């Protein structure tokens, strides 16, 4: 390993760990910042049993979470079944210089800071938490969809029991739910400073930080895909990997919120366009994103980006306004294929998981926030005592 000036330097290996449940751009941004502090980023991921014991049931299985983190562009290695409490032995085992975490707090079921050992040994660094998103917030957005009903195909999942409605309402009062710029279920009483979610404010700088910024080479075969990519998950990841394997440079077109709502209906999209942009840009298979891409793939788009191939997965293709096939142009050009990633998970499936276990998640989020508030108040009392003493 060398500096740009030619002097030798030891490779700095950075350790991060966590649940990484429902991986979103906040997780990705934390890992991006951690990678910037060294040369190699090693990410440890906790198993389902440890998460259930300390936090409550995860939305994704451990295998799904392992795959999702491996798909983030800044991650060099993934360690499966990482211990819930980070120890010096873990850092040494994987030859890591220090551990990095966001400026929030992670607690065990007993209320112990999971990083207390590495903090004491001065092998701990913090990065800024990404404002405007959290797993708790996303779970809340999906629970909001269950307040009355949620439709999936010909099936309808209804909330009919009064106790279920009351349980959901209790959670929604604790979490700031956002759909676009709207805020629903906001509670102005005491909230955890970490679980409580402020509004996400997108900037061009954030997009630049997530983007590779590399144009395609003249010899690259350019592949184009388009969709909502809402609540980015393993189904999306496997599809993008398969699409990328058909060429060299992958461009993803993201539809606007109104367009997604038109063909998805209900409360979709769960994440707004700006959030979806960052989630997709964090994927290591993606080279470029078209923000607010047209639903129908036009000849102008094909020529502008020099697209060689347009791919679509196994999900149904809704027609555009006027009953037009959105892929008519690339089909006529002989540049369209249907691909099968082998993964049938959809965003609707993830929402259904939340609906099926909504009371468990309500209990999980409530307990988590209560512990965080207790710890935060204790920290504030210590600071106050230090000032007065």
The gist of it:
This protein is an alpha/beta fold. It has 15 helices and 14 strands.
Describe this structure in words.
Keywords: Lipid biosynthesis, Lipid metabolism, Nucleotidyltransferase, Phospholipid biosynthesis, Phospholipid metabolism, Transferase. Helix 6 packs antiparallel against helix 7 and helix 7 (162-174) packs parallel to helix 15 (358-388). Among the domains are: 13-127, Rossmann fold (3-Layer(aba) Sandwich), CATH 3.40.50.620; 204-339, 3-Layer(aba) Sandwich (Rossmann fold). The protein has 389 residues and is α/β, with parallel strands linked by helices. The strands form 4 sheets. A 5-stranded parallel sheet has the order 3-2-1-4-5. Strands 12-11-10-13-14 form a 5-stranded parallel sheet. Strands 6-7 form a two-stranded antiparallel sheet. Helices cover 38% and strands 16% of the residues. It has helices spanning 25-35, 48-54, 62-70, 88-93, 116-120, 135-145, 162-174, 204-210, 234-244, 257-264, 273-281, 299-304, 328-332, 347-356, 358-388, and strands at 13-18, 40-45, 77-80, 98-102, 124-127, 149-152, 155-158, 177-179, 182-184, 222-227, 249-254, 288-291, 309-312, 336-338. The chain starts with 12 loop residues before the first strand and ends with a helix.
